[in-house]
């Protein structure tokens, strides 16, 4: 048996955990539906994804993809503009693919979640009322009907791997579903507004920037409570709270 230098905890909280052992990632998830979606979505996606090594519920083992992440929220991206454009092109390939057979979140549910999270942020004094109110107004631009496409659903820059100017893999597909194309583009560029033009250039079509800004606000408002309750800090420089402040 090959020797490895130990087990790295990539992420761990009360819903799921991901461990790295050498070049193998082991994901353990209390909700097997998420694992089911991840495996099927990777099989359907027309872009590079991790190889499934084995599956033994509640665990899933995936091979590491080559390269390094496009960047991290709150830090300058080490990737070139061409790499960001390549990421945009890969997203376009995904969005042009046939729809997955399962539906995504309904517009009414997204609006209701925004209401609940904004109320929590204000009631608990997490953010000033005027900041929440302004970003709630911005978020309304995203809550409109859209033509569904095959979306990744959680396309954070840490989920996109590149080598030079080429995308080598996209990971973490548990939120994949039919959804709004601009949501994927917004999550990819959240906190990295300086690379939005590169992504759009690679994507190859004009986008409604008001909708992108709306999804930035929606994502940051609705993610904040989960981040706080799971030990993450959305007030770290360059992260969710700074994204909200930038809309003021």
UniProtKB/TrEMBL annotation:
Aminoglycoside phosphotransferase domain sequence ranges: 44-204
UniProt cross-references to InterPro entries, sorted A to Z: AGP_Transferase, Aminoglycoside_PTrfase, Kinase-like_dom_sf
Name listed for the protein in its UniProt record: Aminoglycoside phosphotransferase
Source superkingdom: Bacteria
Transmembrane portions of the chain: none
One Pfam family per UniProt: APH
Source species: Asanoa iriomotensis
């Amino acid at each position: 048996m090959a020797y490895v230098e130990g087990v790295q905890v990539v992420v761990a909280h009360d819903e799921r955990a991901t461990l790295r052992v050498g070049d193998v990632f082991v994901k353990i998830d209390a909700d097997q539906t998420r694992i089911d979606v991840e495996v099927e979505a990777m099989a359907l996606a027309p872009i590079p994804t991790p190889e499934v090594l084995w599956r033994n519920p509640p665990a899933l083992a995936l091979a590491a993809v080559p390269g390094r992440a496009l960047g991290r929220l709150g830090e300058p991206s080490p990737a070139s503009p061409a790499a960001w454009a390549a990421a945009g092109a890969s997203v376009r390939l995904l969005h042009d693919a046939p729809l997955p057979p399962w539906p995504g979140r309904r517009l009414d549910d997204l609006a209701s979640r925004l209401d609940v999270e904004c109320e929590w942020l204000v009631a608990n004094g997490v953010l000033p009322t005027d900041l929440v109110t302004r970003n709630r107004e911005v978020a309304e631009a995203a809550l409109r009907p859209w033509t569904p496409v095959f979306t990744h659903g959680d396309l954070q820059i840490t989920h996109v791997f590149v080598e030079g100017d080429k995308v080598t893999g996209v990971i973490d597909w548990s939120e994949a579903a039919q959804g709004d194309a601009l949501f994927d583009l917004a999550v990819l560029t959240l906190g990295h507004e300086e690379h939005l033009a590169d992504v759009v250039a690679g994507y190859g079509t004009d986008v409604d920037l008001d909708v992108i800004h709306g999804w930035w606000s929606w994502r940051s408002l609705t993610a904040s409570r989960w981040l706080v309750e799971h030990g993450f800090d959305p007030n770290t420089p360059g992260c969710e709270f700074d994204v909200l402040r930038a809309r003021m």
